[in-house]
Amino acid sequence: MQISQELRFWRPKVFINLQYSGGLGITTPRQYSYYIVNTYAIGLSYPFKIGDAFFSSVLNYRYVPYTRPSHDFLFTTYFYKGLFNYKAEFAGSFSCWTENKNHGDEPDTGLTGKRFYFFAEPQFWYKLKGGLYIGTKINTFYHVNTTDNIVEVYPTAAVKIKL
Q1: What ranges do the domains of the chain cover?
Q2: How do strand 114-120 and strand 151-161 relate by DSSP bridges?
Q3: What SS3 string covers the chain?
Q4: Which of 10, 35, 38, 110 could join 22 in a cystine, given CB atoms 3.0 to 4.6 angstroms apart?
Q5: Record's Pfam families (predicted)?
């Protein structure tokens, strides 16, 4: 589960950003279940435009309560651009952060320092008719799915309906 909320009670266009993610990956059979560690983040976000493209950048302090807690920064930028009179859309986000290599459990014993993470999901959508779109999303990961020093790229083809 992931929850994100932005709040603003003042004139400047800077928002307080609050985030939570975590939960259980419960499956049947149980041997494939996994636990998602609770993560808490607080920071500032700033929406802006460049030409007719929309952006929002977020800088958060991120806390992960491992046995050896990790205190880090998380930077995310979201983007959106309508193309061809909004017949097509280019959108997505990218995030980068660090986290302790040693979480205080047995597999991490002896590790020190921080590990850098990166995630991006640029998307391109083309409107067929009404709210029906076809498109692609390219998920890109570095250290998100594996501790190996490799970049993973997963392109997709998709259909979406916007109501």
Answers
A1: 43-161
A2: unpaired
A3: CEEEEEECCCCCCCEEEEEEEEEEECCCCHHHCEEEEEEEEEEEEEEEEECCEEEEEEEEEEEECCCCCEEEEEEEEEEEEEECCCCEEEEEEEEEEEEECCCCCHHHCCCCCEEEEEEECCEEEEEEECCEEEEEEEEEEECCCCCCCCEEEEEEEEEEECC
A4: 38
A5: DUF5020
Q: Which two tokens stand for residue 106?
A: 């047995």
CB distance 42 to 79 below 8 Å: no
Is-contact 47 75, C-beta < 8 A? no
Q: Report the pLDDT averaged over residues 126-139.
A: 96
Residue type present at position 105: D
Residue (of 111, 101, 162, 153) closest to 133 by Cα position: 162
**pTM, full prediction:** 0.87
And the tokens for 109? 């014993």
Mean pLDDT of 21-27: 76
